Amino acid sequence: MRKLILLAFLAGAVHAEEKVLRYVPKHEELKYTFGGAAPTHHVPPGTRIVSWTEDCYDGAVTKPDQLPTKVIPPGHDNPQTGPFYIEGAEPGDTVAIHINKLEPARDHGISSFFPGFGALNRTDRTAVLGSDLPEKVWFYDVANGMARTRSLDGRLTWEIPLAPFLGCLGVSPGLEVRSTVVPDFFGGNMDCPEVRAGNTVYLGVNVPGALLSFGDGHYAMGDGEIIGTAIEGAMNVDLTVDLIKGRKTEWPRIENAEWMMTVGAARPLEDAARVAFREMVLWVRETSGLSEMDAYEFVSQAARAPIVQMVDPEYTVMVKIEKRRLPRLVSAATVR
Amino acid sequence: MRKLILLAFLAGAVHAEEKVLRYVPKHEELKYTFGGAAPTHHVPPGTRIVSWTEDCYDGAVTKPDQLPTKVIPPGHDNPQTGPFYIEGAEPGDTVAIHINKLEPARDHGISSFFPGFGALNRTDRTAVLGSDLPEKVWFYDVANGMARTRSLDGRLTWEIPLAPFLGCLGVSPGLEVRSTVVPDFFGGNMDCPEVRAGNTVYLGVNVPGALLSFGDGHYAMGDGEIIGTAIEGAMNVDLTVDLIKGRKTEWPRIENAEWMMTVGAARPLEDAARVAFREMVLWVRETSGLSEMDAYEFVSQAARAPIVQMVDPEYTVMVKIEKRRLPRLVSAATVR
Amino acid sequence: MRKLILLAFLAGAVHAEEKVLRYVPKHEELKYTFGGAAPTHHVPPGTRIVSWTEDCYDGAVTKPDQLPTKVIPPGHDNPQTGPFYIEGAEPGDTVAIHINKLEPARDHGISSFFPGFGALNRTDRTAVLGSDLPEKVWFYDVANGMARTRSLDGRLTWEIPLAPFLGCLGVSPGLEVRSTVVPDFFGGNMDCPEVRAGNTVYLGVNVPGALLSFGDGHYAMGDGEIIGTAIEGAMNVDLTVDLIKGRKTEWPRIENAEWMMTVGAARPLEDAARVAFREMVLWVRETSGLSEMDAYEFVSQAARAPIVQMVDPEYTVMVKIEKRRLPRLVSAATVR
Amino acid sequence: MRKLILLAFLAGAVHAEEKVLRYVPKHEELKYTFGGAAPTHHVPPGTRIVSWTEDCYDGAVTKPDQLPTKVIPPGHDNPQTGPFYIEGAEPGDTVAIHINKLEPARDHGISSFFPGFGALNRTDRTAVLGSDLPEKVWFYDVANGMARTRSLDGRLTWEIPLAPFLGCLGVSPGLEVRSTVVPDFFGGNMDCPEVRAGNTVYLGVNVPGALLSFGDGHYAMGDGEIIGTAIEGAMNVDLTVDLIKGRKTEWPRIENAEWMMTVGAARPLEDAARVAFREMVLWVRETSGLSEMDAYEFVSQAARAPIVQMVDPEYTVMVKIEKRRLPRLVSAATVR
Do A236 and A260 have their domain in common? Predict the structure, then answer.
């Protein structure tokens, strides 16, 4: 018998009566780090959190003629709703976050270029000489499943299908306190389009209570997020948190009925990919019992691996495997 | 009126009577470099080439118990069919290759791990100490649209849907002669799954006649090609070559009715991505008339960007844009 | 007249009577982060701190047969002495640390290989498959200006000249709290051999009081620190801290009578180098009045640029310019 | 007894009568590739070659107001003197090149910035958007052991001590033909300051006769060669070539009485460093008999590792070990 369920999302099964927390943070309750902030709520595993989160601009950009660098207070990128203290969570456990629903909370999304931040321009680390590109802002109308904007001269227009997800979903890193622009083993600013409704995200717990938070609503984003921002906007968030005791998770994993996915974070980009691929090799081995070399071969032929973003302090790569392609026992395969 | 056709594939339109070259190379006619070899044929633009190409193992691996490193002569990776001298092609022109059909020419495909080559192991450049992983070979049965194999201990099985493409398609680099394991601006060993039937590939011409060749049939491959090989096999190849005079192509472009695609090659992986993304920004500008900043924004929100491979001497990344998302004039959009 | 002094070390000049703080921390006073810890002392600018710091192993390795991973509590790498709150220091100022004297505080130094940490082996980010190298420890006898050890089988011996420096010297990063294995714009675990007696280090202030700390005594180290550790040991530390009000410092700078030096931190290694080179171009321009292109040319011909380390979460590169090579006015040069 | 001589330079010892080849190439005899060109001379091992080589600009820049991109024919970078067919050289052997003397052949050196080439600006691979820096040229007067130039506005001046070396010294790569801007395992455009008078360079042979060539005279250069050029100039070259039969050399090694040095080439820069460090670990093991872990430790504490250049298609890093620091037998050490 093949083990179809990889990491069970246990909320529905285990918790007889769902507890619901409804919470819209006041602006002064928003957080700007992973770790280092006191929780806003303590919630038992199985809690459904129906909430809201501000956009990456801290809500400070309200008109197209505002330059983000002029109106956002320093250090106020990607404000977080939370953190939530998950009762019973201890280092060595895994938090499972099932995303029930994500809905744009505004009728417009905002994208912009920040000088010194992006994939096709000079940055603080890819530190070239000469002048930088100019700061620019695009407002997108959000309607009928589409985000539509115009070119800066107003002459051309394009539209992008909405595909809402959370740019940030993370727990406390443990020893460190990290900015909300950083993705890493603790999740964080992964900017991963699969942190979306219908999917379950698994994050390892590093401190008691895990201290889960989310933010940075993305209405849509291309692979690479090359200009440094998605189509950004406040988001209505509906998710259920659960706890898997005694199971370690080294790097974020994501799962739904059809796919298993890993996210790696590092620079250079090949190291982010190596992390995600190695984690997938491990996950396939756990699931199928393959040897290391066989799992290396299987993932090599079966994986999808989009570049997620190459602008944050660590780049992120996602590796995906379709579950129905997973190896099965020869005997079982024969009788299928 | 919006310009829907980006780079026309001209063969059908321009050439009244199709010329067909039918050619199956003898083994001793195969080539192991891009550039540096005399052409096997001179063909006028518009020629349909119905041919065949050997697998990446130079045809030397015929049984699962043969280790590739023992049976392949040194320097005999990715043997090429061709090169073909395209009449009239001069530096500054573009060769357009429309792939009509690709068909596995054998009932089995072969994958293997070569020590020192791959993404999750030591290589000649990521030169770590300690012992390497062992050389291993997997034979896949090819039938019913699937490639199926077993684990090394025979206990487990998996199957991968066939998705045939050419790992190598390239022209002479010009000054240099490059090994057939190398991808770069001249195409070459791009290992790109979109070099497949139905698509048109554009390569810039660097020497008179271009000297086009192809090889390295892939029956299927995961993103990243992390173990260093796809499911490899000889391929029946049917393609039409054409010539666009006076049009430069800096980096390979690929196109079909729905998508426009660029391929970048470099190390580290973020530079391969930068090349492909920058080229896409340029292509979008040529097509739509967007400003640089607007095109940067559009591609940032609309692109797909899979890691193609991270094992060859240059890594490759592909950037894809769906044509129907391309910006259009505001007035045209309104009346649509 | 050419401006020979670049960034004056002001302590001697400005502060009439030197204040001296003598402080040997108890073990429980040691810190394991940059930022996030309450200061042990408040000191006015000009204070001389005569102190001591533990080795990178938290003092837990006392015999060659102890494996560091077994005896060091998790998160207890590179314990810091301090932090010291420098009175009057505000964001936008620069702290100048003049190192008066560094002296090995023990008669032996310790080096070791930690699995998963190093430049020529698999790490958490360069995540290859297969087995890792084994954990090993070398004790060095420290005497007569030399550190001497034996091979693991006792058959061979080598010795390295002592060249003591502080692996860690840093201030609070500001928003974040970083582990003491991390170097970055705030200094930190730079592992830079020029953080040594006779030199002055400049660090930008990110929080009131700066919160300066130091640790990770190195008795000697090769460029790259490739095995992941230097010849490590507790250190007697004698340094004077001063404050330059209203001067920003983006990246660490180091200076003595002959040399000006910048330190960049990033991955990949070329980005660490870009940071350090760009900072040097800026410093040369500030000092000499050269244009950007001229400064680019001058640094290109005059710089020394050793790899500092390529094992920490950010790699570090140092760029050095000999002051007597700095450009001077043509007229001044003529009359020289 | 400790083996002090690592790789003997055998010319003096073995060859009773020195053969001398005096040769100044005509311009039309210069070559622009490693590999792919017919030899100008056949020379027996032990031959002293007294010759000359043109500057990297193909001799086309003769006045400061000439832009290199306007006057150099495409593909004419780094013209080579040679190649020389070394009699008896076969794949698997090593060529030893002892550099007797290098002397600037002109009274001026030239440096310049090429748009798209350099470490602190956009390139064809680090493909950022926006405008590039402007092309600029600096002429240096060469006299009294110094190269002196002025800023572009003529207001400032600086001087750099002469330290002549050959930017290019290489053999045929074997299967491939590479541009003379490329360094790799075959040597080539290493831009390494230790390819200087007094040193011996070892290169592995890949084709019969090796096909050795040299060029790209550098009068002086900073580490990193960040603007893309050294202080460039034609060079009088006096070197002796010799052959070590049956000894493989995977990567370039350099040696003199005091130092052993390895050169690695790759991107990203950490991989160039890994190659050079790994090669040094191997060389130390061959010389001393250390185990792998001990050699890893020894090199970690004893190495110097400057960035050589980070502008060519592969970056180069050099690793140096002082011979007198090499491990010795414990008994020998005791009686010393």
Answer: no
